[in-house]
Amino acid sequence: MKRVVCLLLSLILMIGIITGCSSSKDKGGKDSNNTSQVVKQSEQNEKFNKTGYPIMNEPVEVTMMHAIGSHQGPWEDMHYFKAIEKVTNIKIKFLSIESSGYEEKKNLAFASGDIPDVVWGLTSKEEIKYGVEGKTFIPLQDYIKDYAPNYAKMIKEYPDVNAVATSMDGNMYSFPVLANTLTMASNYLYMRTDWLDKVGKEIPKTVDEYIDVCAAIRAWDDTKTPVSCAKQSFAGLVRTFLPAFGYLVDDRYGLDETDKVVFTPSTEQYKLVLTFLNKLYTNKYLDNECFTQDDANVGAKMKENVIMMSDWGSVMRPENFENGVIQMTLLAPLTSEYYDKKHVRAFDMIFSPQIALTTSLKYPEAMVRWIDINYSDEDVAPNIVKGLNRISIWLGIEGQDWQYTDDAKTTYARIVPSGISVSEIEYAERHVSPGWGPCKLIMLAMPEKEKNPGQYMKASESKVNHFPYMEPGFKNNYLKYTPEEQDRLKILENDIESYTKQMEAKFITGQESFENWDKFAKKLEEMGVDELIKIKQDAYERYKLLLK
User: Fold this and answer.
1) Which CATH number covers residue 150?
2) Whole-prediction pTM value?
């Protein structure tokens, strides 16, 4: 019996030893995997510098999807991106998409699973679709403290930025732009004053005087077109004239006098502005290619002395004028028999979303540091590249692409190589920087008149003819929605916006009679415009609470 017990005990002991060895082996395997992960993370940490520059000790590549305008040069050749690569050791592989098809191709890429590491340029809808709902965009708020000290400093100074950049689920999926400059006037038209002299007219103050000027230009030379715009900026042309016919300054969603949201295209004021644009179009005062041409076409026509007014006046150079002096003005807001107060929509200082990081990105901490450079008040790495700071996305590298021209820093000048045949702004858009993106762009210095005549004209004219008449617009881009609201918005906004744009063009070109305006308004009701307005109103009420 004792022998049996001993044998049993020995067997149990042996099983225990074998099991223990096996368990140890299993644990050893898991520990080995964990060790491998730790080593891998350690290797990444060895490449990455939490502070100081370069950000990465060895070069790494990151893919970035972005829109490129017809007036821009390749982003990889721009001074700004070359400088930031040198400072960070992060090489950007640009996935450049023509701006007119950017939104469609971007969404196709996400649908196919071909996701870039970084998206530069996105909409609020996409932030919800790929951030809040799709979880493809990385939540960024937890990176701010350790990797974005410049951004953290900015949102303490401007707390509204954080409210705008935070989604309904409490996460931050993108970095915004905070901007205020003397050349930020929006919804504007430049007018050649030398042509006014040719036809003996004064700068128009009312819509009737404006039409009179257009008629005089056509009578003087029927090869000239009084006003032009590109298909991308047609909404801006509508916003330029809309305030002349009533209290609304927004072309889609506005606020009435009781602080209630309205859908502007449903209003009588909108009918009046479309009637006005129809008159311009029918008489060929408005370029009949406005629904098909792009920005490059408009800029070229402006310099070829074909058009009198457009939003591309700052490309003009002294040699484009007979007397060798820029003769242009920024048209002040017009009035009409329907509304006698001059007013125009103010630009928003906060633009969000701007840039997002996706789950494909291997180096989120590094890219957060990369982005944070653009919020720095000081040069971030003068020992590597002098002049890279929060202004660089706009003006380029300080000392290379621009410089202050007085000790008080009240004026600045873009630095342009001698002998170029384009304006300073055109040169910058082709060779210097994208001009817009995630950054703290607060700069109230004046462009220098002699070196930057086009930008000086815009800034000086804005101070007189634009800024004094600005009124806050409806903060549509600041609104945040619940998932349920967003689901309805996807359907309502897509259908209603598509129909509205279609009918706008028909009314302006004369394909649709204004006698059918009531049918248009009725159709909007049938499509659910009242439900759309209610969703906007609810989101607006929540936004107001955030500001208290």
Assistant:
1) 3.40.190.10
2) 0.80
